[in-house]
Batch of 4 targets.
Target 1
Amino acid sequence: MKTLWQIFAIARNEFRFGLRRGAPVVVTAVIGLLLGAGILMSTGDNIQNVDVRMQQFTPNQVAQLAKNGITVEVWQFLSPGSFADLIAMDTTGAWGYIYLALLLLPIATAGTVPADRQFGVFELLRSTPIDGSTYLAGKVLGVIGLVVFIACFPFLLFLVALEGIMLKFIGFGIPLGLIMLHLKLSVMDGLPILASGAALGVLAGVAFQTRRKAILPGFITGLLGIFSWLSAFRFPVSSQNISDVAAYSIFQKYQSIWQALWDRLFKPDSFLSSYEFSLVGIGEPAVGIARVLIMYLVILAVLAGLFGLARLWLQWKENI
Amino acid sequence: MITVSQLTKTYGKKVQALRGVYLEIGSGMFGLVGPNGAGKTTLMRILAGLLRPTSGKVSVLGNDVTTGRGKLAVKSVLGYLPQELGLYPDLTALEFLEFVALLKGMTDRAERDKQINENLELVGLTSDARRKMRTFSGGMKRRVGIAQALLGSPQLLIVDEPTAGLDPEERVHLRNLLAEMAGRCTVILSTHIVEDISQSCSNLAIINMGQVLFRGSPRDIIENVRGKVWQVTTDGKRLDPGMAIVSTMQIQNGVQYRLVCERVDGWPAVPAEPNLEDGYIWLMQQARINQNNSK
């Protein structure tokens, strides 16, 4: 019980400290500016083509696409020449965007432990009856909590933007079911990636004295994270335009895995119908629950291994 | 009771911070004095379970701090104020103290709040408790450090250079506070300011170059130097800088020196009443002579 309180204290402190330093505002503002700038730069041309594009679909198809958050090239700036899938914030992963989290988050979070050294608090913390595992667990949970909290703001920003775009160009607002779908997919798809990216960074930065020195290891960890993730969970993709399609396909396939898990657990009777809103889900072979569990286990095993290494380092170098 | 025997600590291959230290520390307030780089902080860190000794035995309140279990046991009854105290600048003093209290295992909220408020009052920070610590002066930060060290009613309080950065009034207040704490637990005070020790410690050790030069009471040190403290008044002429001058004071029509040495040749010298600082200077002087002789 005492250990849980200690973990809670460290996590809450990390969370609070991150908030006070304005991280949510900065991240949301950057994403907002990116999206806003993209819309301003590209939407005009795209919108001119919307009617032409829409003519390629029947009204029912357009309505169906819109209900599923799929519009036509409105956000083309992120995905030249392809559909712009607006399902949830994390669906930016359709362009490989979410995988940037695996690269960027470790850079941002690698300084978590070095910051304690830099502020001169580490020696004080070491004098309290906490062990290395408690300290690391608190740090990792705090950072994950902060990252998830921050992610809520771009998510809301996304919903507002989507609502505006749909009202203006398609004529009706976001159905409640679609909002729930966005939320569900964000939780299923986005959080594991965000959490893994954040945790990887914390563990990679343990050995470094200053936040600045932890940037490079964070970057390297991020790169390794992306390649490991994709190589572990990707499906074969064949396309002429591999750079545009690869991340999209991988993400959609990954999303299908999550969807399969979700359906297996919560909607066993409507398993097949749930693939209606997955662009590549229809006609794809169903993903077995064992595969999903293996994916979970692989992620957890990798993180646990890194956690163990970081723990050993703290024990060896810091006597904690 | 704290016992240290044959304690050594080497950083890397060359820097020997502690060289076979033997020490016994009982209850009450114990002073650890020595010049910068003497090994005081290293010894404090080992006693607090923060640093692994290279060799030797350390028992703190019956726990062997070289083992994981013993280390945690010591930390659970420890109050520690490090020399280089850092605080989270974006937290308030109240939040920081609550954070440390939880880390110390104070899970009962009512007890935690009570102690935090008491300690804030004790260090005179009640009215500033909700201010972010980035706005605190050096002295205020030090006081937050004291308040956190006192959380959890520690049985052992280790304070490393606690008066650094404090103004004279704050120093006196802190010394009184530590002396009061010494009635309830063992307090180890490390400093290079002899005055801090002379005002509050009944026992002390002088450490230099990783070795204990002296272990006893302030009175013992003073007696040790009795008859070797002199006052010399000149008409403005300067003494040989090689002489062990403790203090120099400009007076009307001359300069008054206080010296610590066996005898003063060539100057009119008057014996003076020794104090702790004289005793400390004398011991350090003797240590230097011994070191030179051994070379």
Target 2
Amino acid sequence: MQNNVKKRNTVKILILLVIAIVSIIGFLFYNIQGSFSYAFPKRVVRVCAMTITGIAIAYATVMFQTVTRNRILTPSIIGIDSMYEVVQTVIYFFLGSASIFVVDRYLNFGTAIVAMVIFAILLYRFLFRADKYPIFLLLLAGMIIGTLLGSLVNFLQVIIDPIEYLSLQNRLFASFTNVKSELVGISAIILIACFLYGARLMRDLDVMNLGRDNAINLGIDYDKIVLRVLILASILLATSTALVGPVTFLGLIVSNLAYQFLVTYKHSILILGASLISIIALVGGQFLVLHVFELQTTISVIINFIGGLYFIYLLLKESRSAR
Amino acid sequence: MIEIKGLTKFFGKKPVVEDVSVKIESGKITSFIGPNGAGKSTLLSMVSRLLDSDTGEVLLETTNVKKMKSQDFAKRVAILKQSNFINVRLTIRELVAFGRYPYSKGRLTAEDNAKVDEALEYMNLTDMQDKFLDELSGGQKQRAFISMVIAQDTDYILLDEPLNNLDMKHSVQIMKILRKLVDELGKTVIIVLHDINFASVYSDRIVALKDGRLVKDGLTSEIINTDSLREVYDMTIPVQEQGGCRICVYFQSH
């Protein structure tokens, strides 16, 4: 029976892989008008950005949900993407859109990532003390700080020069149509580094499904690994946010679809599945935006709409099974 | 031998365990008993390093537990707490196989699989090893978790109220298995028990706690008598001999 499950999972992963490849090919080649040599490289960059974002978010969310032992949370709950908005708004507000921090995209990207990761690490440093405070205190505090940062951003945006505001707004909406192509390479490097580092944690995460006490019993340095995962998830989320902007619900949808679709506790398989679903959602979604809705809407609107519905469905399902 | 030396734990300003020192002998079943809030579970959690102590130390043979690597400790001492909520779907076999994690790090060898088979057989779970945990009754689930701890193959097995929510039949079943583990495989079992009669009938030694302090520590026969129990529970409990067992008839005591 175990082997059957394994075989079925392999088949499912292959199906996802095929769909992902088909949607990538479709996105790359469908209805190219005008100069191929102009349009094609642009599409390649976009597909790369979507793939990186998709994988980063899926990866971060699955790990985050295991260490928080909660399947309706995403790492954005601790306010990392609010921190992104803060960084961008502060730069635009105090330095203006002509400043080097805006014009030099590497600098902008680097500043944003460093700020987000420092924010996350400070939060963990102060609030994550193993048996003293439970992890939910950290999440609550993160949520409140995130809201505070959001209000701060709002305040600055109200009093900022309207022209600056327009160009700022462009930065703050998730967009795959104008990806910063220079950033794709460095994001890919960060993602690969995270994977290399995280590979060692996968099996430990499998054991952490059994809960803190059982995991410690089985020789896991639980609190140390939770901290590592939180930092890893922050880096991944920061990277994807800096690359395309905040995509709130995506991680929630793809992780839960992966749990339902693949019956396994193994993180290596779950993360692979969630990543593929994520790529399908982003590339397929963007395909729809371009060719069906003809740019009348954006992918983040679609994702948040579907994500919102799915979230409500999950809440209803959880409350039913809790009874 | 596990030696507990001056362990203290505060929750806020309230001491839950206060300066407890006791030696746990190898190859025996030792029961921790005492009223609610006596600190039994907290003490067990500190011994098994689920919880940090504020002061004091725990020695395994002669090594300070805190100085051991988690993975090495996991090969010597196993702990099972009473609430085990799992939000993924696992089969019994998959759960039991996790018991081999300290040795195999998730890559099961033939030897690991043999140990898993053995542990399943020991708990009478071989026939239903492919059932999912959420399809099981409370007793079966408890057996599955104990089976995982057996697969872990440690010299010391610590259990926090393993009889909680079990009916008489399953309770007796589990206590008999623990007895077998000690008598046949030479394990050392430390167990937190609420039902004093199970402690009386199945354990070799009893450690009694009250308000976070050690009140009694000795052979079962030295503790299970009206005078000693009065000190622990503030109740006058008649003790009757029944087929070689001492039974506490506490139902109408005051």
Target 3
Amino acid sequence: MNTNDIVIGMVGSGGDGVVAVGDILATVAASEGLNCLQLKSFGPQIRGGESSCIIRVSGQQVNSQGSVLNVLVAFNWNDFTKFPGELNVADGVMVICDENNFPEKLPFPEGVKTGEIFKIPFDKLVRESQNPKAKNIIALGLITEIFNLPAGGLKKSIERKFGRKKPEILESNIRAIDIGINYAKDNKLKSGLQFQYNKGPAKLVATGNDALAYGALTAGCRFFASYPITPASEIMEWMGKELPKFGGTMVQAEDEISAVCMVTGASFGGVKAMTATSGPGVSLKIEAIGLGTIAELPYVVVNVQRGGPATGIPTKAEQADLMQAVYGMHGDAPHAVLAATDVEDCFDVAIQAFNTAEAYQMPVIILSDQFIGHRKETVDKFDTKKFKIIDRDTPKKPTKESYKRFVDTDTGVSPMSYPGIKGGEYICSGIEHNEDGHPVSNHIIHEQMSAKRARKLDHLAKNYPFIRIYGSSNPDVGIITWGSTKGVVKEAVMLAEKEGLKVGACIPQLIYPLQADKINDFITSCKKIMVVEMSHSGQFAKYLSSYSKMPEKFIHFKTSGAMFFAPDDVLKELKRGL
Amino acid sequence: MTEARDPATFKKYISSLKPIWCPGCGDYAVLTSLAKAFAELELATENTAVITGIGCSSRLPGYLNTYGFNSIHGRAIPIASGLKISRPELNVAVAGGDGDMFAIGGGHMAHVVRRNIDMTLIVMDNNIYGLTKGQASPTTPLGTKTATTAYGSISAPINTLKVMLGYNCSFMAQTSSVDPAHLTNTIVSAMKHKGFSCVNVLSPCVTYRGNEQYQLIKSNTVYLDEKHNPADDVEAWRLISGATGKYLMGLIYKNDRPTYQDKLAELRTSAVAGKAEFKIEDEAQMFRA
């Protein structure tokens, strides 16, 4: 059978190089104009722990990692058991593994009937390659031949991966790829599934974290301060390399609080600024973010969410920092929260976040997560001209006598001066202040200024241009989700429609304030509502219930993080609730 | 110099807001001296920013006509750092009390010193939390009874000068509110210094530390003269370890070294690597397969 959509899972110990195979395959797919999505998942060890990788290569649009693996390459069966719910094997799965240490019974769920099992003499083949670390590349050669995957760009991608190392390493890896291909040919290893595709224009390959950093640069970010934290550090590393080329600065701060405060200072100075962290970092930054709301300072805070609370599961995703992002601050603290849904969207959302921050002069939190932050996807292009770049409104020729930094307006937004502007000198403060910026502690001014700041959110919710709606109109089931579960939900909607079900989905990008009008329109158009989220307590459903016409009864597919939702799981739950 | 200290000149830096400080508070002298220093250095109000955190002394920016930021407790240093790094042409001063700078915000001190960001820190040290009405601070002497130390403080006070010298602060001076001329001169030299400068101001709290503290600061001082070599860190350590038994006044230690901005310029040169221009849209090339 021919296919243009294949899902490969690999698992091994650190050093087996399963992620390197994913990287090479992603590059090959991109150069052939195919779509690719590559997930990486690790144990907590710095080196030598278990690692797994899922690579989906497709001629179609790729929304998710798919529901089941077509092939599992298992270098180590012990490691396989450490990824329950991530490496999903089903009937027909092909298995490629070492001829040594083959278990009496495969550690698969009860009742799974495997397809072909190819036991490979890796020790012998590795000796032939003269590179003790080439097992992964030999396996890459095997699957390329077995499934007829694109071999064209393969050697070039290997050169790219190993080209900077010693020449003998590159040579032995090139040898290894041929050893794998030839072994499969000689032993007539073939899958019933043969990959067929049409070559297209080459694509880009990026991770969500890199795409987000690039989006911020495009939006005009020229100051970035952060503290290293998994799974967000790559944003800081990218900024450290690229910002200086554009006259900008990345500072590795001494702690999370310092990072957001440096960003606060840069924003006060008129410079677009961002900090990136994960949930624990946001907990530390939250007092300063509150300051940003009352001092009306535009800047962006990125939370690449991980499993929580406390240390939780740093290497895996969860969507349980929603309440923190919306309600984390003390006091009435108007700010905005945006959510990114995939790699390309990380780029877009970074720009939208800066535009929102600048337009409304308030901190904006971007919620991403490890699932999209660390995964690689092919992207057609990053369109740096897609959005108009918005800059904060500044006073025109202010005078000391007439300029009021916090003048009350219809939108709640007041022209913002910054050091260097003569006549615009003002005191920025976290103390409640009047329109002049002078400290006050009376109820009347506090009420007036609270209303002024809150007004920005009314305006934003009414005017935010974008919300994702997929699938049938007036559906029998309307799914509402947010963030990285978009891809899986979108694919589930497509699967449902193929089965003749009327299913739709609504996925807001602006999480706070909620676009209640648009969401209510969606809710009222659906017979039944389903909420999908990676949060054990179901934070999103509770949140929706407080701001929209959510029905009392709805299908709730929720689970804690560290597990990849599959489109089939969503569909199964949906049918169960029908 | 005399012209700068003429009220007609320096008053333009002082705003019309009435300070919340108690009568007799040492911070009044710091406000006036800061304005006089700005006048002497002929700073433009629009190019000058004073950043503070929380505390009596942190109300300072409100009483000045420059840009100011009265932020949150303990965070004046990173906020000022972000401002100065991203807007190096500005004159940036940071001010705060002993609690703001050496308790809640103490973690930032080592790092601003290590970065050697070209700005001036003015610590108004009164050995007490005044704004919250009289609790013990990190510099409250042992045995002192305060609102939170009913039986006398049992935690040894921090010698903040030793802390700053240990971090290798590139300019470190001490002065007091009781000697306004010395205070002004010290702020002027600190602001002229290229690099991070720290001025520790003994600034009495007449409300919670009483007249006794004021008299102690007034009478128990020794002024460093030209015989003191501020480049000598060993001698500086000896002096601040209590060799004289008195409060030292003057420039204690100075160590000229490249500022953060100097190092940043070198970093940018490496990053640019001779290329004339970078375009945002070209950055997409790095994602090419």
Target 4
Amino acid sequence: MNTVPLAHYLALASALFAIGLAAVLIRRNALLVFMGVELMLNAANLTFLAFSRNLNNMSGHAIAFFVIAVAAAEAAIGLAIFIAVFRTRNTINVDEVDALKY
Amino acid sequence: MDPTLGLSHALHWIVLLPLIGAAINGLLGKRLGRANVHLIALGVIFGAFVISALSLYEVSFGDSSRLHENWWHWFTIGGIPVEMAFAVDRLSATLICVVTGVGFLIHLFSTEYMSHDEGYWRYFAYLNLFVAMMSTLVLGANLVVMFVGWEGVGLASYLLIGFWYTDEAKAYAGRKAFVVNRVGDFGFLLGIFTLVGLFGTIDFAELQVAAARVLPGMVLQGGLWSGWTVTAVLTLACLLLFLGATGKSAQVPLYVWLPDAMAGPTPVSALIHAATMVTAGVYMIARLSFIYVYAPTAMTVVACVGAFTAIFAALMAYAQNDIKKVLAYSTVSQLGFMFIGVGVGAWWAAIFHLVTHAFFKACLFLGAGSVMHGMNDETDIRKFGGLRKEMWHTWATFGISTIAITGILPLSGFFSKDAILHAAHVNANPWFAWVPTALYVVGLIAALSTAFYMWRMFNLTFNGERRGMLHHHAHESGPAMTGPLWVLAGLAVGAAVWGFPRHGGAAFEKFLAPVFEPARANLAKTYAFAAEQLSVAAPALPESHGFGDMIGGYLVALIVAWAGFGIAWYLYLGPGRGAPARIAQAAPGLYSAFANKFYVDEFYDLVIVRPLKGTARVLWQVVDSFAIDKVLVNGTAMVTGWIAQIVRYFQDGNVQRYAVVMAVSAVAILWVFLG
């Protein structure tokens, strides 16, 4: 059976991670920043699974489930915060939400 | 029945009863009312006196010469068990009877003396506390328990000197007494450590056994004092302990607190600063006599300091016009005599003088209190005069005690003082051959001075005509005051029988002989060591002397005492009246040196107090206020503030900038660790 080599998975994961990081650092819309975070989490997931397969060890799968669960919880809380921020400030542009400073 | 009357289980009550009295009077006294406070204070002291008297009877006539009680185990340190233990032998039994007996009389006296004072309950609580602590000191079966009492009496003394604390000068006098005593106590503590380092025990009985085993010239192997000789270590220990004694017993150089201690109520001066507490140093040296004899240098120092104090304090008493100050300097001087006694190995004579002095000096102080009571608290003897007519009881008892203290036959002071002088005279000192003669001569001059200033005071107070307060009628005190006066005067007369020299020594000498037997045995070893070292014949041990040996000394002493009396009569009552004033005018420098107590207080102020205050000021303002507060504490905050002023702008609220820093940092870390 032809298997995809580990390096390919890692290359893809790195790419996803880089794209996600770029989104987090560059996008001004909080929702898009958030999506970047999700992308980075999934890049990590992909790395876990790739190693899991490669090493014949199931722990990677288990950790991936944990990561998904954490991502879900985080998404719920994060979206709730955005809604709260939008209600008070009428914007979710992260550049404008900078009251906590100095 | 228990042959010791169960006394060895009752010793702690001598301490506990006054302590309970102090607690009740101190905590509830204000509500109890005067009569109840008096009842409790006198009752507990009387109870303690009864137990003391029973133990004295037991060790004198009973089967056991020493009662010992392990009350409770206190703590163990470095393998040395410290027991709260009390012991009574003939020495401590004598002392404890004086403490509780004279203490009882003075409590009784105080009921009337303090009858106008609002703080009477506080006064009696302190007085009971003092008796408890003094009992601890005397009964303590080891050095640590003795030290507890030693500190405790210092506390009680401080509280009572500063009893009228609203008067700043009096509060200051109390503080001075406490601080000066602390200097001595430090030496005492170091002395204890030195002894523990050598013998590994604090118990007096064990120390005695351990001391009997060593030889003076022995070089120690191992332990704290490895390489030292026994004599060297014990000389150090004895000198340190003696430093403690100079503090507590008001000897040069630490005597300065005692005259100021007269700020306290007069019965306190009688009990603490004349009869009992100040004799603690003499008692301590007698207690450790078996160790002191190994340190002939320390013994010589003790005797010489005693002699110097005896004459120095007597001279200072010449020009004092405060009735209590004269008595205070007299006490310092008489304590000097006691130290001559313990310094030349005449322990019994020193203790005998301690006891007789307790009687007549307590009587004198109480007499002074009675005079003050009748004269509106006036203490200036220049304003008195002719009080004999108005205060007959006080005059009579004061006169008896003055005869006793000046050493006129046949009262107790004559025998006790001359036993000391005689012992000093015939004492063998192979190292310092000139010392015995010097001690004797200085002692005689001090005795002459004593006779002079005591009769001066007596004449100015009771004889002649009233010189001040002319319209004040002095009233004689009531029976609660004159009663103790007469009992003490009676004792001052009666104690003479114990000191009458007979074949084989005075009664008191024979009585205490067993206590000082170990000391004599060790002294023989020291003398043998001296003979070997100096290649001279070993001196004979001091022997007891009968009347025949002492008659010459007695005649000299009597001449001296009458001479002092004569001079005082001539200058203050006889044809020489007015001469003292002329002398003072002719030699103002000399007079002011006497009147200002030779400027010793000023000297200490200049040499010790001021530099200390200066150092304290520097430490306070430079080290504490500036270096620590300003530079270190506030400086840290200030520097932190400056840095924060700049660094805070990094927190600008932009989440994405934080994320960039985080990402770059993460990359950098990975680079460092993986790259």
